[in-house]
Write a structure and sequence with these properties.
The complex is a heterodimer of chains A (75) and B (308).
Chain A (H helix, E strand, L loop, with lengths): L4 H16 L3 H5 L19 H17 L11
Helix pairs in contact in A: 1-3
Chain B lengths: L2 H15 L1 H5 L9 H6 L8 H12 L1 H8 L1 H28 L2 H7 L4 H12 L11 E2 L2 E2 L12 H20 L5 H28 L8 H9 L1 H44 L14 H24 L5
Helix pairs in contact in B: 8-12, 9-10, 9-11, 9-12, 10-11, 10-13, 12-13
Chain lengths: 75, 308
């Protein structure tokens, strides 16, 4: 497999875009990865799922420039 | 201990380089041609007698430059401008890259490089894998053979690209684009590996002091194994290639596991009570072993097409 630096950049942009377009209400809340399911124990290390959700949220914040917090509807 | 001696030896050589410029005035200074030709006749009476006139005439050009106040002022102004430019470049560059941290990784000497290469190829007899610290800062590679450095990975990367060119040339498959393609492929694989390591260290909240440069260093040590493999493949054919591949794979796996074990598995966790998730130590072990197993795979992937 011959990679070029351009293909690496291409892949990085596509992956970042894929993470950034995950919709909070329509998708993430449905599969239990919403913004309010990050409650972990206080004082110990956040678990893997919390870190992943943090990562998704930070990518979305940086890429979209949103500054407000959305919570999952109803439930 | 001969370690400080290396530093002293370097400065002594620099001091030794200064006197010859003063000595050259005693000999015929052929750089300023015409005055030296005229004073040839004055040389014969005595060597020492002939020196001062030659000194005055041969070095008039240089003397004029240093005694002329305008030229002096111009030189000082120019040097201050150059210093300002240098400071500005340094400031801008240090905004993007921690230059001091990078300098730490290139503070190597010959003895360290020799020992590190031996450990990379034969890590089974090395006893102490602990990185030594000095008041919370890690010791530079000159004083600690376990410290990661970036000199060996950089040189090994360049050597690997040259060897790939040689190997392809032997098989009459060489063209200049192939070198660039080989270099960018190896670089991209290294970037991918470092990014995956960073991601997994972040997800598992491993609070170790592994910086990005440390990971680049540990990921770049596999190029040494690649060079050994390709060399023996060129010299001894396909059998030599597989033997060297097995040897360097085992050596690299042991090296990576033992080096990263110190950093990842024994890193501090923010939970002081030890009631963190019980899956944590296992995942850290998985990361270490996965990194180690990835090395032989990538060595095979990047070198098998060079040795047919």
């Amino acid at each position: 497999m011959a990679f070029t630096l351009y293909s690496l950049h291409h892949t990085a942009v596509l992956c970042t875009n894929a993470i950034a377009v995950l919709h909070e209400e329509r998708f993430l809340c449905k599969i239990g990865w919403g913004a309010d399911q990050r409650v972990g124990g206080f004082g110990d290390d956040p678990r893997i799922k919390a870190q992943v959700l943090n990562l998704i949220r930070s990518v979305r914040t940086v890429m979209r420039g949103q500054k407000s917090v959305f919570l999952c509807p109803q439930k | 201990m001969d370690l400080p001696h290396h530093g002293y030896r370097a400065t002594k050589q620099r001091a030794r380089a200064a006197p010859p410029t003063a000595d050259s005035v005693l000999f015929e200074d052929t750089s300023s041609a015409a005055p030296a030709m005229n004073s040839q006749g004055y040389y014969t009476p005595g060597y020492n007698v002939g020196v001062p006139p030659n000194d005055m005439q041969g070095a008039t050009g240089a003397d004029n430059l240093f005694t002329d106040p305008m030229a002096n002022a111009a030189m000082m102004y120019g040097s201050s401008l150059a210093n300002q430019g240098k400071d500005m470049v340094n400031k801008e560059l240090s905004r993007f890259m921690a230059v001091n941290k990078l300098k730490y990784f290139f503070a190597v000497d010959t003895r360290y490089v020799m020992k590190k290469l031996m450990i990379l190829m034969f890590p089974y007899t090395h006893q102490d894998w602990e990185v030594r610290y000095h008041r919370d800062t890690p010791l530079p590679p000159r004083q600690d053979v376990n410290a990661p450095d970036l000199y060996i990975p950089t040189m090994a990367f360049i050597t690997y690209i040259l060897l790939a060119g040689i190997a392809l040339g032997i098989q009459k498959r060489f063209s200049p684009e192939v070198l660039g393609l080989c270099a960018s492929t190896a670089l991209v694989w290294m970037i991918i590996e470092v990014l995956v390591m960073l991601l997994s260290l972040y997800l598992l909240t491993v609070h170790s002091d592994l910086t990005t440069f440390d990971l680049i260093a540990y990921s770049g040590y596999k190029y040494v194994g690649m060079i050994v493999t390709v060399l023996s493949g060129l010299l001894f054919g396909s059998d030599g290639y597989y033997v060297a591949l097995a040897w360097s794979s085992c050596a690299l796996v042991v090296f990576i596991v033992r080096s990263l074990k110190m950093k990842i598995l024994t890193s501090l966790s923010s939970d002081s009570m030890g009631t963190g998730s019980s899956a944590k130590p296992q995942f850290r072990l998985y990361i270490t072993v996965a990194t180690a197993i990835f090395q032989p795979i990538i060595i095979y992937w990047l070198t098998s097409h060079l040795v047919r």
